[in-house]
Amino acid sequence: MVILGRLCLAAVLGGAIGLERELHGRAAGLRTHMVVCLGAALIMLTAEHLYQHYGARNAVDPGRVAAHVVSGIGFLGAGAILRFRASIRGLTTAAGIWVAAGIGLAAGSGFYVGALGATALVLAALILLTRWEWARVQRSRFKSLTIHASGPVELLSGVRSALNQFGAEIQNFEVERKNGQVLLQLAVRFVGARQDDSLTEAVMKVSGVSRVVWGDDI
Fold first, then answer.
1. Global pTM?
2. pLDDT (0 to 100) of residue 195
């Protein structure tokens, strides 16, 4: 019963974190976090079982098994990180997967205070701090902007000036040049009301710009 209780606790705690990610439309959501946390708890329970039965004779160390889980989960977390044009997505989800494994190890070892406390703090960071960040930056938003142009790469300065007129700032950018054409991929931060139409006209007036494409919110 103790073993089943630890496994159930790990599934519930991992699912709580995964549900928050699911509600935000992330690919690694409820099921992924629940399975990761449950698997980590099972591995920890297995390590303790091996230690109780063979530890004295074969020097089985549960800590070493846990360490391999922590390092191995990094490969799964890396799969949640995606590059989208000039931005990176999935870092928070990858961190959530990693901490879910840690919570699973804690639950599997019977360290209930650590498992419950960590889950509460993670949910607070994902939910409460997110709301605080949005309240702090008010209506700040990020969008991707792709600009097709011809001419020198220095036209980026003209684009930056056009964006600044509307309170938009370039947070990140990439420049690609092919056959005399310049492709600018920008991550743009807006503060206050958006003025995409007027801003697009201002960017189109920059010498050499032939096409402006707005992407979804980053």
1. 0.53
2. 58
